[in-house]
Structure formats: structure tokens, C-alpha cells
Amino acid sequence: MYVAHLSLHDFRSYATAEVELGPGVTSFVGRNGQGKTNLVEAIDFLSRLTSHRVATDAPLVRSGADQAVVRAAVVKEGRTAVLEIEVNPGRANRARVNKSPLPRTRDLVGLVRTVVFSPEDLTLVKGDPADRRRFLDDLAVLRSPRLAGTRADYDRVLKQRNSLLKTAGLARGSARDAALATLAAWDEQLARYGAELLEARLGLVDELRPYVGKAYETVARGASRDDAEIEYKASVPLDGPLEAAILEELARRQKDELDRGVTLVGPHRDELLLWLGHGAADPTGRLPVKGYASHGESWSFALALRLASYDLLRADGDDPILILDDVFAELDAERRAQLADLVSGAEQVLVTAAVPEDVPAALSGTRYVVADGEVTRDG
Prior knowledge:
Mean pLDDT: 91
Strand order of the largest sheet: 2-1-4-5-6-7
Structural class: alpha/beta
Number of domains: 2
CATH superfamily of the largest domain: RecF/RecN/SMC, N-terminal domain
Order of helices and strands: EEEHEEEEEHHHHEHHEEHHEHEEE
Shape: globular
Helix content: 40-55%
CATH topology of the largest domain: Glutathione S-transferase Yfyf (Class Pi), Chain A, domain 2
Largest sheet: 6 strands, antiparallel
CATH architecture of the largest domain: Up-down Bundle
CATH class of the largest domain: Mainly Alpha
């Protein structure tokens, strides 16, 4: 799978942009602030309908414009499809395939698959649990796009339930009884969608685990594949049916939830634990990466998570597009060379860099210079 042509209209800094692409490596080189990351961000947005840089759609639309359009010709197994997303902040986005509207925008998810390496990846290790949950969910949705609906339904129910908890916590008498009766209906929905999301995450972590160990061994100096471990920590017991477990835990924590006005049970409270297998922080001799790993170890673990994602997607039989967004500037020479060797065989690799010297020799290929809003082929 690869993108053969990218068209942008009022996306980020571009009023218009037309870029020819192809298999192999393409690099976009330019000083910071010139728009090179905007190009690869657009392709990633087509894949996941979310940005690896911002949480909302509004920044994706050029200042002064009402909407942005990203269009890409994607080649898979010799056949070309034109994917398009119309970004409408404050209104529903619209998606098309070969000019035909899709019934739901989320039906676009997964038609093109991307794996992005970026400086923000360090938050996978050092950031909040929400960053690691998002990592799991984004990967799960790429592999099984139907989960985009489950994820959206869960978020919707969670928002409604939190609002009701605040109301019920303040109510008295018959008003409180009515609120609690309504709460039971939301509990059932939360448990149903939550169990489906939780099951997907648990299965994903089991499949991802060996790939993480293998990738860490490759990118960390002197490491073995047993030195990197991942573990899913749920907010409910996992020794029985998941939907029943969520309902039971919701009942047990109801008083706490009413006092605090928030939902304390469900996948939104779970954590992906990252461990390094050296030390004595616990009886197994493992150390949590967050708080104990050096900067180099943290970077190696973040790279391992991305490489594991790439390898898992390839194991599904679909070579994803690899995006290396200004990542080489953050790595020493040895890690640059290791990462470049690992990804150089991908069907399509898109690289951004501030200077040509940041792009390793193993990733030499087509180069574009990005300056003053113009994208010009170099040579």
C-alpha cells in the first residue's frame, strides 16, 4: 500500500498543494515552521481521522478558511482508490471514496494504514495513562475499523453518565430515585460497550507483547527481548465475563461515583503498564519505565512500541505507510542507523527532517524541499 498523490486545500498552512509520491522513501526537508510536517499529518489524518499533533480538528483548517480538504490516491495490490476527507470544525466532517460519499465518516478509517514515529512518542512512556490508552485504541481501530463505532459509543455513554452522576449526587428524595433509575440504564450501556473495548485491548496487548520485546532488543544497546514488557491493568477483575464484571464493579463503587460525580469504572480508567526487566522494584525484578528509565531507554521503549505496531500490522498482511516525522533529530547516530535499517524495506516511507544530514543514508530516495509554503522536488 502506498499514496501515489496527495492534494490539500486549506489544510494547515497550505491554500493548495499537489505532491506526487510513490513507493520507497520520500523525504521532506525544510526548516521548522515551513510546513513539512503538515504534509505527512494529512496522510495520517486520512488513516485515523485524528491528528498525532492536536486533539481537535480546528487547527487543521487554514486561518481564514471554513473547511479543509485532504485527498489522496492510494494504491493497494495494483488498484487505485481516491480517498477524501472534508474537515468541518464545529460541524460533521465528510468522507468520500472515488467521489462517492460514505454513509459515515468513520467508514474511512483503516482504508489506508499509517504508523507514525514523532517526537511526541515520548509521551507514550512519560505521559499520562490516557496517552497509552489512545495508543492501544488507535491501533485496535486500524486493525478492526468497526471498533471506531464502539469507541465513539463508549465515549458518548460515558459523557452522559458523568452528567447524570453529577445530577444524582446533588438530588434528594424522588428526584434522586429517578436519577438512580436512569443511571441503571446507562450502566448497562457502559458495560456493554466497555466490555467490547476491553476485550479488544486485552487481545491486542497479548498479540503486541512479543513484538515489543523483539523491537526493544533491536533498538536498545545490549538489551534482550525479555527486557521490555507490557501489561494491561484493568479497573475490573478479569477472571469472568467482562460485561458482568463492569456491572458488578459499578454497583460496588456507586457511592464513590455519586460523591465525586464521575465514572470510576471502565476502560477509560485502565492503564498500559510498561516494564523494563532489570532491577528489583518488584519481586519479578522489573522496573516501571516511567520514573526509572533513562532518557535513552525511554526513547528505545517508545520506538519499540511503534515498531511493534508496524510489525503487527504487517503480520495482518497489509504493509502500512511509515511516517518518520522529525524523529531522527531526537536520536543519536547509532539509533538513527538502527531505525533506518529496520524500516528501509517498507513499501512506503515518508520522512521529514530539518536538514538533509538528518536523513540516514539507508533512507535515501526522492527528496522534496519545503520552504515558504512551496513543495519542490529536489533533483
